[in-house]
Amino acid sequence: MDQIDVTRVMADIRTRASADLRARAYDGGKTPEFSDAELFAIVEQILRNAVDDAGSKVLLLPEIIAGRPELMLEPVARLSSHRPVIGPLILFVKRRLLQPLSQWLYAYSMDNFQRQAQINAVMFAALQALAIENAKLRKRGPSAA
């Protein structure tokens, strides 16, 4: 019985999948830069590395924006009232009646916040990879461009 070279088969599958992705990304000229297969391969590799790096590398952008509360996702519901007399009654109704009724919405929102945080991490990794490449080009000087 003939043996199958799994490495070669997987490489062929990856090549076909990448070619299909490039064709879809090129989309009949809507992204003309992807007519260049080499350029597409570089972009694809940078973005694939970003997906892989999002959970394993230290990303600078989240560290930089950590002290900026207006840029952070914070899905915590805070209940308060500015009314001094009737405020405690309003808070009681909100906490005992309205909050339990909206618990399903909170769970749904938390799932979406978690997905958004993961997407943000991937985008931060991609942006960091591009910033690194840009810095390398700048370091080489104007003749590198």
What does this molecule look like?
The chain is mainly alpha-helical. Helices cover 67% and strands 0% of the residues. The protein starts with 5 loop residues before the first helix and ends in a 5-residue tail after the last helix. The mean pLDDT is 84.
| Termini separation | 54 Å
- The helix-and-strand class reads mainly alpha
Rg computed from alpha carbons, rounded to a whole number of angstroms: 25 Å
Element string (H = helix, E = strand): HHHHH
Low-confidence regions: none
SS elements, strand count: 0
Main sheet record: none
Mean pLDDT: 84
Beta-strand fraction estimate: under 5%
Inertia-based shape? elongated
What percent of residues adopt helix (DSSP H or I)?
Answer: 55-70%
Number of helices: 5
